């Protein structure tokens, strides 16, 4: 085995290579805008140059004069669309700001016109010639800008249900032997997936096909149908491959229904490829956040009081927030806890989910503060976590289904060489470089959603699995194929997986790290239905019906058990049945999902369950991350030569794809500490570095050493697959680990991200 394919430990699947690897690296994989359309017209967006005000009028003469221009669509002649509710309020939309509906401008870069032409070049040329007269108002850009309004998140956003509290924080904090109060800031960030934001629409009579990179084909289908006022069965969304999502493609953006509406009117397929800079304003992003943490502890390191106050920026109409106090108030044992999340409204596009939305900014604050507390206590930061480790979350007292946090710390510390650290700041150096070691915890809720699957087995073992999951670069094809192969006892190479198409049985949004748990649980269930049919066919008549119902079906929760399960002679069973193909369809829902889940799965919005919202338990994946930073004494250049993470996430379906996911997470985590930030021109409420030259993302030279350790963990209380999501686990806490290491290297505590060399004194 190579390093890229770790040897599986207990409760892990085989580290098989990616099912889609070859087609991706050879360019054979077809992304949404690669799909051939018959005689398409091309769209190019015109976006607002102001953040607040209105369009008084257009001068389109020069634009119309460009050869090949077919139409220019503005608010004056746009197709009429119905409204859609915000994703986090039970709808599908990432924003309720509906462009081309009126002359009003709600944010910089809002779509104000769409040029349609015979070629991409003609559309772009004409778009550049569109002249706009604006009435300009002064916008509010961000925190502290004049004109913003602030209010508690609770009551404004149906997804943010509570400000967790327990005990008497104020009293306990006042009486605490050790007290810490500190404020932390995280910046605006944009997803920047490699694949641009594209939409291709083609009507065949009354039926609409949309090719668009999406993390939620069923949501997009239902949302676009709602906006167009047509039956959802008339809409199909197709995207067998998605070139990165990171949360930017989970909710519907306004562009899709606009393009679909124009295509219907023109009676011609339309292809839109928005530019990189337009992607910063026509979709969602991670908003900037502010935090105040108060920790009270006894001298022996036990937390007695914890308060986390967070504030997040959102748009004027939409109360979006990530609200990570649900996690930070439950991570450590503490009898007195208080929290509050507020939303600050500014003249901005609506933010949304991005790469571990609540935990990345909120654990930056908590895990930085824990390190500061360890310094105050003169205690090893790993020991501080051990002292405050808990089997039950402190708010409701519910037990964690499994919690390998300290096991992760111990494994990662050993691999990293934590014992070599001398605890004093500025005590380690090599030549011109100060060396710092730092660590932090990570966790991410185990979430699941209802999913359906169809599985077809042929007599020769060839198997077809259909489920409208999404391949956003995570290895979804591969783990779904592995699940079916193991469960049916057929060779992996005989399994074909079809995902990324809303005509397939529905699956939830590929977000909140639920996909593997949800899709594999559904596929397991349907494979069991097939096994049951086949077993019944070969059972002697003397067996009772009850015995027939259960024989051949694994009662064990993991796919591992399926292999050791009673073997099935498929050919014999097919002969006994007298058929050549067996096909089953099934709908699976996780424990705690509402009764109407299956109805919602087909024609409405499905909410994920899990994490802290389970009835009598709480489910999270855990990890520990250790980093080495080097800071040049003279130039203050910051390097991060080593990232080491140990993670426990229930059953690891495929150690190779899991390692890749976690490695990517560690790198994004480093990026959130040292590189990524969207700069805002506060005068104009405008993103400045809206391109991949100025918006910094990591390259290989930024991460010379990344080590991922997978712990063996079995959890029988989460889902039939036994899997906890890990796609968003590793980039949580890394930012804190890096700032903790920077403190160790320099003696300087930095509480505002990203950290650049000019921030080192
Ligand atoms: Mo992820 S931000 O939940 O797509």
Explain the overall architecture:
The chain has 761 residues and is of the alpha+beta class. The protein folds into three domains: 198 residues, Aldehyde Oxidoreductase, domain 4 (2-Layer Sandwich), CATH 3.30.365.10; 194 residues, Aldehyde Oxidoreductase, domain 3 (Alpha-Beta Complex); 161 residues, Aldehyde oxidase/xanthine dehydrogenase, molybdopterin binding domain (Aldehyde Oxidoreductase, domain 4, 2-Layer Sandwich), CATH 3.30.365.10. It is built from 18 helices and 28 strands. Helix 11 runs parallel beside helix 12 and helix 12 crosses helix 15. It is globular. The structure holds dioxothiomolybdenum(VI) ion (MOS).
């Amino acid at each position: 085995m190579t390093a890229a394919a770790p040897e599986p430990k207990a409760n892990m699947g085989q580290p098989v290579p990616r099912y889609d690897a070859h087609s991706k690296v050879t360019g054979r994989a077809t992304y949404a805008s690669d799909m051939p359309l018959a005689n398409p017209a091309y769209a190019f967006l015109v976006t607002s140059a102001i953040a607040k005000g209105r369009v008084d009028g257009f001068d389109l003469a020069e634009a119309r004069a460009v050869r090949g221009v077919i139409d220019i669509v503005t608010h004056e002649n746009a197709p009429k669309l119905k409204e859609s509710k915000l994703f986090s309020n039970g709808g599908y939309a990432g924003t309720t700001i509906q462009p081309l509906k009126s002359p009003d401008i709600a944010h910089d870069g809002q779509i104000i016109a769409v040029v349609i032409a015979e070629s991409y070049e003609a559309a772009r040329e004409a778009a550049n010639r569109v002249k706009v007269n604006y009435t300009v108002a002064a916008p509010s850009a961000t925190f502290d800008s004049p004109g913003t309004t602030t209010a508690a998140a609770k009551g404004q956003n149906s997804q943010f249900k509570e400000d967790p509290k327990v005990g008497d924080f104020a009293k306990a904090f006042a009486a605490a032997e050790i007290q810490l109060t500190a404020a932390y800031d995280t910046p605006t960030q944009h997803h920047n997936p490699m694949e641009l934001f594209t939409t291709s629409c083609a009507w065949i009579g009354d039926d609409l096909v949309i090719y668009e990179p999406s993390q939620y084909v069923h949501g997009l289908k239902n949302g676009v149908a709602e906006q167009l006022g047509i039956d959802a069965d008339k809409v199909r969304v197709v995207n067998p491959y998605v070139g990165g999502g990171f949360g930017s493609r989970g909710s519907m953006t306004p562009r899709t229904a606009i393009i679909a509406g124009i295509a219907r009117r023109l009676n011609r397929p339309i292809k839109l490829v928005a530019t990189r800079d337009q992607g910063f304003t026509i979709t969602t992003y991670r908003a900037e956040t502010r935090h105040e943490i108060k920790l009270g502890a006894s001298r022996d390191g036990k937390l007695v009081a914890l308060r986390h106050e967070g504030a997040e920026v959102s748009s004027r109409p939409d109360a979006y927030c990530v609200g990570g106090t649900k996690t930070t108030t439950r991570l450590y044992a503490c009898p007195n806890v208080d929290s509050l999340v507020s939303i600050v409204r500014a003249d901005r596009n609506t933010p949304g989910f991005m790469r571990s939305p609540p935990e990345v900014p909120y654990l930056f604050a908590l895990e930085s503060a824990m390190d500061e507390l360890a310094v105050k206590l003169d205690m090893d930061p790993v020991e501080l976590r051990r002292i405050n480790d808990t089997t039950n979350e402190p708010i409701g007292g519910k037990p964690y289904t499994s919690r390998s946090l300290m096991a992760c710390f111990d494994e990662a510390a050993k691999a990293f060489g934590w014992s070599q650290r001398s605890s004093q700041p500025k005590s380690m150096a090599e030549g011109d470089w100060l060396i710092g070691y730092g660590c932090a915890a990570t966790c991410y809720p185990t979430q699941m959603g209802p999913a359906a699957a169809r599985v077809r087995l042929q007599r020769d073992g060839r198997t077809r699995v259909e489920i409208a999951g999404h391949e956003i670069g995570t290895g979804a094809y591969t783990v779904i194929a592995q699940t079916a192969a193991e469960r049916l006892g057929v060779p992996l190479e005989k399994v074909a997986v079809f995902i990324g198409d809303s005509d397939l049985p529905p699956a939830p949004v590929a977000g909140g790290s639920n996909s593997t748990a949800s899709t594999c649980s559904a596929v397991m269930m349907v494979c069991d239905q097939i096994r049951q049919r086949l077993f019944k066919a070969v059972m002697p008549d003397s067996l009772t019906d009850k015995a027939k119902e259960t024989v051949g079906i694994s009662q064990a929760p993991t796919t591992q058990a399926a292999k050791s399960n009673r073997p099935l002679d498929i050919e014999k069973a097919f002969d006994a049945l007298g058929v050549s193909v067996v096909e089953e369809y099934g709908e699976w829902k996780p424990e705690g999902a509402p009764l109407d889940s299956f109805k919602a799965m087909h024609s409405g919005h499905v909410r994920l369950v899990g994490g802290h919202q389970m009835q009598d338990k709480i489910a999270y994946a855990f990890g520990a991350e250790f980093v080495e930073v080097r800071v040049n004494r003279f130039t203050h250049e910051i390097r991060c030569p080593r990232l080491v993470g140990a993670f426990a996430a229930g059953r690891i379906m495929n150690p190779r794809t899991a390692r890749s996911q976690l490695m990517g997470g560690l790198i994004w985590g480093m990026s959130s500490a040292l590189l990524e930030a969207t700069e805002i021109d506060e005068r104009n409420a405008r993103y400045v570095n809206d391109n991949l030259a100025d918006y910094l993302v990591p390259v290989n030279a930024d991460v010379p050493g990344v080590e991922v350790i997978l712990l063996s963990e079995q959890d029988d209380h989460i889902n039939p697959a036994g899997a906890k999501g890990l796609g968003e686990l590793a980039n949580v806490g890394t930012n804190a680990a890096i700032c903790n290491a920077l403190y160790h290297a320099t003696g300087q505590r930095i509480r505002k991200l990203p950290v650049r060399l000019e921030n080192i004194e």
